[in-house]
Amino acid sequence: MSGRDMSGREAILGKLRVAAGGGSADAARQEAVEKRLARPPRGLIPARGQLEGEARIALFCQMAEAVTATVARVRKADDVPRAVTHYLRARNLAPRVRMGADRRLKAMNWSAQKSLEIGHGPAAPQDEVGVSHAFAGVAETGTVALVSGKDNPTTVNFVPENHIIIVDAKDIAGDLESVISRLRRKYGRGEMPRVLNLVTGPSRSGDIEQTMLLGAHGPRALHLIVVDG
Amino acid sequence: MEVSSPQFKQKSRKALADEQLQRAMGKAKAGFIGKRRKAVDALPEFEALRSSARAIKDHTLAHLDLYLEAYERKVIASGGRVHWAETAEDACQAVLDICRAVGARTVTKGKSMITEEIALNDFLEKNDIRPVETDLGEYIIQLRGEHPSHIIGPALHLNKEQVEEDFRRVHDKLPAGRDLSQPESLLGEAREILRPQYFAADVGITGANFLVAETGTSIIVTNEGNGDLTQTLPRVHIVVASIEKVVPTLEDASQILRVLARSATGQDTSVYTTLSTGPRRPGDPDGPEEYHVVLLDNGRSSMLGTEFHEMLRCIRCGACMNHCPVYHAVGGHAYGWVYPGPMGAVLTPSLVGVEKSGHLPNASTFCGRCESVCPMQIPLPRMMRHWREREFERGLNPATQRFGLGLWAFFARRPRLYRLATSLTIPALSGLGRRTGWFRSLPLAGGWTRHHDLPAPEARTFMQQWRDRDTRKQEGGVA
Amino acid sequence: MKEDTRKAPRVGLFVTCLVDLFRPTVGFAAVKLMEEAGCAVEVPMAQTCCGQPAYNSGDRADAAAIARQVIEAFEDYDYVVAPSGSCAGMLKKHYPALLRGGAWESRAEAFSGKVHELVGFLVDVLGVTAVPAAHRGSVTYHDSCSGLRELNIQAQPRRLLATVEGLDLKEMENADVCCGFGGTFCVKYPDISNKIVEEKTACIAAAGAETLLAGDLGCLMNMAGKLHRQGSAIKVRHVAEILAGMDDTPAIGGGGR
After folding, report:
1. Does C contact A via 3+ CB–CB distances below 8 Å?
2. Which of B296, B324, B358 is the last residue in one of the domains?
3. Which one of B296, B331, B353 terminates a domain?
4. C114, C138: one domain
């Protein structure tokens, strides 16, 4: 930290401390902060985010479609490659996709899709279709949660014009808070993956005359494949 | 950005006469209000969530120093760096130092009001670094050399013909016959132009909607995806955020997210909510190698604990201006600085001084619609009134106004004298206006009669007539 | 109202300066409505204005002096009622804020509890469900901002208007949007105010009603003044006049009596 940073830091924090009561109740304030950080209160969860079972999956699909994502449901993971090929054909897209080395994706039976070309690693400008596996889904808003990591490049989520996201039905939570709890269990308390992308529908902009248009800078189309089994 | 708020009256008159702007404002108004209403009506818990969101920010502000320290620890632990900036100049310099250290020539930028506040683009350009705005609206106004007229819709004041003109002027390699007449084709054009910029930039700069103390995470909320490309592709990611953006935990951010997009655009949630924690990790196939956070104060710490404290709850959703009749009438540029509308009328005097921006808190009817839709329940009219009080204390109001007010108060504080004065003038005025019942002009009432007629008083004052009635009653009682 | 063994509630009428000076009819309508509902209405002579011009101009000292004067004159009544959401809001919501932290704090709080806007008082406190008035014609109703947002006056006037014989309520679009009056705002920023009131009169005209009603004389004078300048034939009245069956008096700007 440079000298300027240091003096700025002390000056800002000093003013904040004075405004907060000049150090008189610091022990109590410290305790309140530590308590909240150690045991985050869950807050208010709308009823819509508390559905169970099939109702929850159905809400997820409905909310996603409401923001112009398309949704397909398949019975098992091995049905995914065929669903991807099917989607590409229906959209008149070349049979080429980009994906990371995610083990759940790897385990799928891609070789059965003879004509499908698969590129691994981060996305490049010429990539037309990206395929990702979601960490979780959120039924309340039709959102999918994607985490970055060595097998999951972030560029796959934003560079290609079309994005296909696989989400396991069992990973679809009612609310974001449940996803946060799962993140804590996986990464540890206070820890996060480098990037968590919460994606709700395809990219859009309303910046010209309030006309909502799809495909601003991120994907123009978002296709979700929900794996039931 | 230079403060031109003292010219509010001239600028607002110009805006009122600008037919193109008026059409754009009419369109924007109808869109935002209806969409928010629909989203709010669809969520029965919305009002309770407002209170919950407000409580989170109140708690955070009461412990702001401690949460910032906790946040800083986590950023450092995840491999990032935190730069504290007391002023706009400090923040600009911190960004420049980072850019210079990596030899940056081009930086891409996600939409960020904070970088507008510190006038980062001008500063970088002066130092031979080219900033490229990537949000569609920001890109358009950068081409025009303008500033945002709305905090979430920077180009709200423009129509598509103006955008086409700008694109044709600046995009000099346009193929002949390229159609740019529709929003679709304009968006396609901007996408095509900006795409290579993301890959070519050395540094990507974004703002932050939240900073999470629990994890050292910065969060951006966008619809276009430009912020994500901006922060993922270059070698360095710089987050510029003000100190009040911190929230304690991920759950706290989630609570506030539920009211943010609904209040702003009427979406249940924005398309991309991105939580970033530190730079690229070992084995990561992409992502920035450096992650910096520039934490800006710029006058906010001086608001804490004052009557403007609650303004620090603001999450920059724009609902207040979307519902403000004054903003609808004159648009954002009339306000003369970065933040327009009711939130700007409170914040601008706090950040640039009320002597330069006195018009803003005065140009409000106090209709209260802003407060009624504010997701953080900020009492905006009350704080505008507090600015008026500061102005009054310091004698900043025009002399004629003070004189008129003083004269009125002299009578208002003396009921008997007031009754005497009004019992003489009102019947006279009533008589004067008896023929038509209206005045088209009247001395000292020019402000009123410029645009409307003034109804003449009915007759004698109510108090005069009431006394007569009382007298008659008493006489009747005796008889 | 049925004969009641309880004593009639004593109401202090806060006339408001605009009603006092420009349209006494509203004051008499208020008295009539409350007397018919069984109240004993009195009008303390020591009243002038609620103090908003000072308060909203940043002049706290004069506003506080006026607040103390009003409290002193009215605090002994059972209720304090004003035919204006804006003035009632000032008395009820802002006096306590203005006098906080001083010797008057508790008096202002106690006083605040007694203050009501006229139509809200009739419906919510006195339990009036119908008025014996008649009005042949169509009306549209503008929700004045302070009454609406500070005191929740929205359903009450509509509820009573629905019981006026022969009256046809035609709702306008954006009835709850400000008319651009804003007290001193309309003379400090006349051009902006004008733009806002023009939007309002367009909504009023589109509603197609013969008469415009609202609960605040400031807003009414603003809208009436604009309508008249535009050459509109729409008549403008305070809602209390219709509820009290006093539509035989000339409408606002209709000449003296």
Report:
1. no
2. B296
3. B296
4. no
Residue B190 lies inside a defined structural domain of this protein: yes
Contacts of B433 in chain C (CB under 8 A): 256
Identity of the amino acid at C241: E
Instruction: Compute the count of residue pairs across chains A and B with CB atoms less than 8 Å apart.
Output: 274
Cα(C177)–Cα(C214) distance, integer angstroms:
12
Bridge partners, residue A138, by sequence: A143, A173
The tens digit of pLDDT for each residue in C193-245 reads 999 999 999 999 999 999 999 999 999 999 999 999 999 999 999 999 999 99
Q: What is the span of the domain harbouring residue C140?
A: 130-243
Q: Does any CB of chain A come closer than 8 Å to the CB of residue B150?
A: no
Number of domains in chain C: 2
Q: Could you tell me if C190 and C225 lie in one domain?
A: yes
Which domain-ending residue is among C124, C143, C166? C124
Contact check, Cβ <8 Å, C53/B408: yes
Is B173 within a domain? yes
Same domain flag for C198 and C229: yes
Query: The domain containing residue B422 runs over which residues?
Result: 416-478
* A13: closest CA of chain B, how far (Å): 6
Q: Is B338 left (phi over 0), alpha (psi -120 to 50) or beta?
A: alpha
Q: Which residues pair with B455 in a beta bridge?
A: B438
Q: Considering the domain boundaries, does residue B8 fall inside one? A: no
Three-class SS of residue C140? strand
* Residue pair C94/C57 in contact by the 8 Å Cβ criterion: no
State the total domains in chain B.
Answer: 2
- Sequence length of chain B is 479
Token code pair at residue B26? 């009419």
My answer on whether B110 and B252 are in the same domain is yes
Statement: residue C4 has pLDDT above 60: no
Is residue C192 assigned to a domain?
yes
pLDDT in tens, chain B (479 residues): 789 999 999 999 999 999 999 999 999 888 999 999 999 999 999 999 999 999 999 999 999 999 999 999 999 999 999 999 999 999 999 999 999 999 999 999 999 999 999 999 999 999 999 999 999 999 999 999 999 999 999 999 999 999 999 999 998 888 878 899 999 999 999 999 999 999 999 999 999 999 999 999 999 999 999 999 999 999 999 999 999 999 999 999 999 999 999 999 999 999 999 999 999 999 999 999 999 999 999 999 999 999 999 999 999 999 999 999 999 999 999 999 999 999 999 999 999 999 999 999 999 999 999 999 999 999 999 999 999 999 999 999 888 889 999 999 999 999 999 999 999 999 999 999 988 899 998 887 888 999 999 999 998 999 999 999 888 887 775 43
- Do the interacting molecules here have an ipTM over 0.90? yes
Does C184 lie in the same domain as C214?
yes
Taking contacts as CB-CB distances below 8 angstroms, the residues of chain C near B456 are 253, 255-256
- What's chain C's length in residues? 257
The CATH number of A49-227 is 3.40.50.10420
Is residue C116 classed as helix, strand or coil in its secondary structure?
strand
Chain B adjacent subunits, 3+ CB pairs under 8 A? A, C
CA distance C33 to chain B (A): 16
Q: Are residues C66 and C135 in the same domain?
A: no
Q: Which of residues 411 through 450 in chain B touch A, CB cutoff 8 A?
A: none
Q: Give Cα C13 to chain centroid, integer Å.
A: 12
Task: Give CA–CA dist B134/A218, Å, rounded.
Answer: 12
Say whether residue C113 is in contact with chain B using an 8 A CB cutoff. Answer: no
Q: Is residue C88 domain-shared with residue C171, that is, in the same domain?
A: no
Return the pLDDT at B478: 47
Distance from CA of C39 to the nearest CA of B (A): 16
Note which residues in 153-172 of chain B have CB less than 8 A from chain A.
153-156, 158-160, 163
C16 and C107 belong to one structural domain: yes
How many CB atoms sit inside 10 A of residue C173's CB? 11
- Domain residue ranges in chain A: 3-38, 49-227
For Cα atoms A213, A216, A218, give the angle at the middle one, nearest 5 degrees. Answer: 130
Nearest to B269 among A141, A150, A153 (CB): A141
Beta carbons of B230 and B272 less than 8 angstroms apart? no
